[in-house]
Amino acid sequence: MPKTLVLKTCLDEGIPGPEHFEIRESPWPNIGDGVIVRLLTVSADPYMRYRIRSDGDYKPGEPMLGLVAGKILESNLSDWKAGDLFGSELPFTEIQSVPAWKAKTFRRLTGLISEDQISFGVGVLGMPGSTAYGGLVDILQPKEGETIWVSGAAGAVGSTVGMMAKQVFNCIVIGSAGGPEKCQIVKEQFGFDHCIDYKMCRSTKDLVKSLRHVAPAGIDMYFENVGGMHFEAAMQCLRPKGRVAICGVISDYNKSKMSPNKIYVSNMIYTEQTVQGFHCLPWLQGERGQFLEDMALWLSEGKVQVRETVFDGLDSFGSAFRALFEGGNIGKVVINLSPKSKL
Amino acid sequence: MPKTLVLKTCLDEGIPGPEHFEIRESPWPNIGDGVIVRLLTVSADPYMRYRIRSDGDYKPGEPMLGLVAGKILESNLSDWKAGDLFGSELPFTEIQSVPAWKAKTFRRLTGLISEDQISFGVGVLGMPGSTAYGGLVDILQPKEGETIWVSGAAGAVGSTVGMMAKQVFNCIVIGSAGGPEKCQIVKEQFGFDHCIDYKMCRSTKDLVKSLRHVAPAGIDMYFENVGGMHFEAAMQCLRPKGRVAICGVISDYNKSKMSPNKIYVSNMIYTEQTVQGFHCLPWLQGERGQFLEDMALWLSEGKVQVRETVFDGLDSFGSAFRALFEGGNIGKVVINLSPKSKL
């Protein structure tokens, strides 16, 4: 029988883990008017943290829903055939039927990646990749030679932003990550010019000092993944015509109440600065830009590289999810489901 | 002899007035390679408040510099002739020579307004008009039927924003102003749908309540002239895809230290909200948009109307400037210089 990952209990405050999820067996699906699919990868992402709160939209006893990539097993649709690879948002059920209307929203991955790269479908060619792409290319609009600061630089989104900014747009790229090991990987593997170990900074003032040390003239862009003192430090170092793109505030996710940040709006007037929130959907769904084409090209050229922290099997989801908030991951956290598992 | 307005003493904190300025006589100018001009109007504007601080760029004993409109008296340039009307930024000296390089930056007002409308050159066809135009047309980009909130709605910038939003873009327009008299003018003369008397609101919570009363579904745009609790109330009522344009923070101008505002950046992500600072120069200088043409058209069609608080003579500048911070003005504050004064 196919397995399904179910939310066991909600969590308002604190770090989630295996105890908040459980596995349930599901019936074998009937194909209906669409397709039957097998999930090969499911994704653990920071944004899911909000959704397991008691006021979130994930409900105890119901299947978890999130970003997945997989393979078509059977199809009643002319545009999908058995063996095709796809990315989508689906319940975390290993084998399931998908109705025709929903299958029409699948992203086609066949031709872009091979089956052993299927996890890219929830990473660099999925939500985190499209977040990095939309935020950098369309929201921040980098110019050659500009300086960008990227928080969460060892993570799936941040590392991709930095590699694109460096390799595609020729920017000066500064990261921020937690601990010397991550900072080394950010510089050596992802090619950032500098990386600040924010765990060495006890205050916004400390962080500003570290940032000014590597960017004495300030920063032109800030890509916000974390919130808290990072946002305030970025605003203090932001140059005229500076842009800030906000796609995540992971420092808030495990708190029961959001923390406000200080902003001095008068500083934004003569400097013509912008702070803009955004999410990946316009680019992931192909409404804006050319995400899949551009990113697949940059991957093939080696301008963007992939690093993953891999977990195995649906029942490892809770540990994978916890790793996101304990800083236990480098690059994208993926949960691979064995394509050969007996059901 | 022509008179010049000079800054007497700097002021870091508190409300400026006549005691901070003095009149000095200037020599009759030599024409040089450019023009000799007579100023007919000089402008008192909130942004000048920063510049008379001890760390500002206006220095005691030196002439005040600001937005002016006037007439060419003599010209050595082919593109300007005696009698032409212009707008510019110049020292506040009644009659002065202007070198050719500077005269090339003059805005031509001949053909747009008559000499008895010359004060429009520092108002609706000058800095405040271009601030209103750039902020509304290009920064906020209103769509028909959207709701906009405008603070400082009785002032030169705010009233013009509201009239354009209502008459040109068919928006629902809510103002905010201090006191029942101003609120009545904002609604009756400037045609806003609603106006909130912020002096009746003791807290951000009060202001949010008043705003929700007239805009139960929230606001799509906020035009920021004042700062403080207005900014926070606007962010609390801002709808998805909401935009905030920041051009002034008058509540800060008389303090020695700027006050920070609270912002919850996580609220901006899924709502795709934007906060953007800007100033008028790109539109005033003709680098962006078609400010002079569009605004002169809307004026002639009666879509935008002008209301002024008029002071007479250079020596009234201090009182005019003070009125800006005491709420003593409705519409644009202008200082008219008699075109017939003996020199």
Automatic annotation (TrEMBL), chains A, B:
**One Pfam family per UniProt:** ADH_zinc_N
Q: Does the keyword Iron apply?
A: no
InterPro entries xref list: ADH-like_C, ADH_N_2, ER, GroES-like_sf, MDR_fam, NAD(P)-bd_dom_sf
| Key words of the record | Oxidoreductase
Instruction: Specify the superkingdom.
Output: Eukaryota
Q: Does the keyword Phosphoprotein apply?
A: no
Domain Enoyl reductase (ER), by residue range, is: 17-335
PANTHER family attached here?
PROSTAGLANDIN REDUCTASE (PTHR43205), PROSTAGLANDIN REDUCTASE 1 (PTHR43205:SF7)
Q: What is this protein called?
A: NADPH-dependent oxidoreductase 2-alkenal reductase (AtAER) (NADP-dependent alkenal double bond reductase P1) (DBR1) (NADPH-azodicarbonyl/quinone reductase) (NADPH:2-alkenal/one alpha)
